[in-house]
Amino acid sequence: MIEAQGTRAEQILRTVFGYESFRGEQADIVDHMGAGGDALVLMPTGGGKSLCYQIPALLREGVGVVVSPLIALMQDQVAALKQNGVRAAFLNSSLSAEAAREVESRLMAGELDLLYVAPERLLLPRTLERLASIRLALFAIDEAHCVSQWGHDFRPEYIRLSTLHERFPEIPRIALTATADEETRREIIERLGLDRARVFVSGFDRPNIRYRISEETGDARVRLLDFIREEHAGEAGIVYCLSRKRVEAVAEWLCAKGLNALPYHAGLPTEQRQVHQSRFLREEGVIMVATIAFGMGIDKPDVRFVAHLNLPRSLEAYYQETGRAGRDGQPADAWMSYGLQDVITLRQMQAGSEADEARKRLERHKLDAMLGLCELTGCRREALLRYFGDVLEAPCGNCDNCLAPPETWDATVAAQKALSCVHRTGQRFGVTHVVDVLLGRSDSRVQALGHDRLSTYGIGTELDVSGWRGLFRQLIARGLLTVDLQGHGSLLLTEASRPVLRGESRLYLRVQRPVVKRQPRARRV
Ligand code: ADP
Ligand code: ZN
């Protein structure tokens, strides 16, 4: 029998890229773009967004112009395309004037299939004039969430990309991102003038990633070390920390324990960052300890774990960061340890930022959603996907809560003690002091304040320090207490604390327990 040749797109997929078949929605997207439509593609990291514009650019006459904010990524993509025989080039600040001129003359001569360009470069009047005088296949706007002022990857030049729509109304445009929340989606459509675009949302589930979240008990670094040694010895991973200082301390500490760890944050010299990044990409088993400055555009398929030593600021950030694990589809871990201090620090950072009230409220809401995931007693994946508008039919069986359902306990009495101690100490103290009072600790501060004479002094011996801290964290997460962000992090009662204080509503909390250890699962081949 004669094999069907397939469509032209399929032929390009096979002959140019060497892949057998399209994945997920790629085929539909390529069809749609090939026919000249506009598209907004929401696809998780590793989902295969690049082919969605590369193949249509080859199908259509003229050059496909790809806007990307990431210089390193551009270079990698162009190098890979050239290896496949595609006539590709990039224009960005890393090129010498001479090299840029050469690219421009190839562009004008119609010798390019794909041109990657940094947004600020594209928006130069000179570049736009040149593009207006040649045949264009399409515009692809990669990392389109950079247009969102709410996101932490905001790039002001992205807003000006609406020019493309105005100056080149006939040229199909495709915007792509891995960030899929409603808010960002709306902003992309609005700011890039994509109201006629077809929206493609692909499955956000990453079934090979096992989610595990636990509250800090003792030194999180020690548990991290155990986790890496027991489950990921010699494998590549990323450890995210909130601050540069912590990044350096943790990297140093892991090295001292014999692991191959490197620091990465925006405060390091560019050259050192590049060296560390390329070692992570090229050597085996390097652990990158990093702030969120690391990761966007990193294409390393065999990252076996992503660990968070702090709470990410939103579910979008958590999803995006953990999504860097297991892009090859093999089992991988998303491991997190968070503590009360994270919540306080993040809230203080938010409160102290320059942002206006509306934005602060939104950020607060996002952090609460993140905490909600941590607090959860049900399937983590189900909740995470629900947030992104994706539905999981049944609990996943591959998260800590599915593998070992958490126990809950009736925390009503303990919560009443905690809340009344906050009340008795005048809502003027942070967690550490209130816990001291509950435990009946008598240091000079407690005595000077006369807090050893309060009715709540020493009434909390049923829990230890970390038990109380955990309880306070959960009270904060559930809105039964707030933290005074203007002041010094004093705990304040809320409307919601009253029914609990009066015994009208009960409170069940998850029992703190150590993180799930490795469970048997299919071996990698
Ligand atoms: P994204 O930009 O969505 O993060 P990429 O476009 O970089 O993802 O693709 C991720 C990986 O999947 C790459 O290694 C790519 O070569 C591979 N890939 C993409 N589409 C296919 C396909 N149809 N068949 C096989 N591999 C694919
Ligand atoms: Zn689950």
From TrEMBL:
* Record GO cellular component, one term: bacterial nucleoid
Keyword ATP-binding in the entry? The reply is yes
Q: Which reaction does it catalyse?
A: Couples ATP hydrolysis with the unwinding of duplex DNA by translocating in the 3'-5' direction
Q: What is its EC number?
A: 5.6.2.4
The residues covered by the Helicase C-terminal domain are: 220-370
Please list the GO biological process terms of this entry: DNA recombination; DNA repair; DNA replication; SOS response
Q: What parts of the sequence cross the membrane?
A: none
- Residue spans making up a coiled coil are none
| Record keywords | ATP-binding, DNA damage, DNA recombination, DNA repair, DNA-binding, Helicase, Hydrolase, Isomerase, Metal-binding, Nucleotide-binding, Zinc
Q: Which GO terms describe its molecular function?
A: 3'-5' DNA helicase activity; ATP binding; DNA binding; four-way junction helicase activity; hydrolase activity; metal ion binding
Q: Which cofactor does it need?
A: Zn(2+); Mg(2+)
Q: Which residues form the Helicase ATP-binding domain?
A: 30-198
- What superkingdom does the record give? Bacteria
Is Transit peptide there in the keyword field? no
Which family is annotated? Belongs to the helicase family. RecQ subfamily.
What name does this protein carry?
A: DNA helicase RecQ
* Biological source species: Acidihalobacter yilgarnensis
Q: Please specify the portion of the entire protein covered by the chain, as first and last position out of its full length.
A: 1 to 525 of 713
